[in-house]
Each structure stands twice: as structure tokens, then as C-alpha cells.
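Session log. Operator J.P. requested a structure for one protein chain; no other inputs attached. Running the standard single-chain path with C-alpha cell output.
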Amino acid sequence: MIQKKVCMVGVAGTGKTSMVQRFVHSLFSERYHSTVGVKIDRRIVDVDGDEVNLLLWDIEGRTPEQEVPSSYVRGAHAVLYVADGTRRATFDQLPQLRELVRSTVGDVPSLVALNKTDLTDQWALTRSDEASLPDAGLTHVRTSAKTDVGVEDAFHWLAKEVLRVDASRR
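Structure written below.
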């Protein structure tokens, strides 16, 4: 079995833990639980016949002023950056968070999850915000941990990209 480390990075309250809980346990809780340090979960996914054991490192919320501990991201095969679509500041901080992570792991497959799409009446991002992500070299997906929109897609996309990168290095 192939084992891959995926780190979840974003500002506090963006829904990183909720996304992991939805993906691993098919659960969602309305109660906010702040992650302290890092919480590790895992789930095996099938990617074109290959079983991939995703080790999901849910890293406590960070701001660009708080360096993401290199010990948490070292060895990551992929990164899922999570922004809260109802809080523009969480989106605006992605470039700095990305640079902090890239300084440790380099260019690994990365995806931005614009989370909380179920809160459409509170959505703070524009189409041009989303359109700016490919220009920065980032793919994104809209997600909702609450309604399970895009969550499976996000993790499966990362697993597939990690295997594609591995195959290209052979």
C-alpha cells in the first residue's frame, strides 16, 4: 500500500478539522473545536486501482505572523490550504502561508479549499478572487464540510496528483 502525508494548513476557524472529520468519519459537528498542535487521521482511498493511505495532518490554525512549524509539514507529499469563503482575510493570508510551507517542503501538489459554501448569503469572495488562484499556480475547489460538497473531491484530487508526481519521477 502507498502511504502519503497530506497537511491541512489555514487560519483558525476555516474548517480544516471539520473537513477531515467529514472525509474520514462522514461526520459534521456545529461545535467549534480548536486544534492544538496537530491531529493526525487517516483514510485509505482508491486511485485508479491503487490503494493510497492518506495520513491527514490537521495543523492548528496559523496566520502569516505565526510560522507553520517545519516539524509538522516536513515530509508532506501534498498540502490542502483551507480558506473560509465567508471571511476574506483567510483567503488573503493564503499566499504568505503558502510561502511558509513551501520553504520547508518545496513544490508539492497543493489545492485550495474555499470552504463553507453552504453559507452562500455570507460569501465574501468574488469570482475574480477565485480566478486569481490559477495565476498563482493553485487549483481550487469550493467545499462545505457541513453538506459534504467537494470534500471527497478535494482529497481524491490530492491523492491522484501525488501519484502522478511519483510516476513522473520514475
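Operator note: The radius of gyration is 15 Å.
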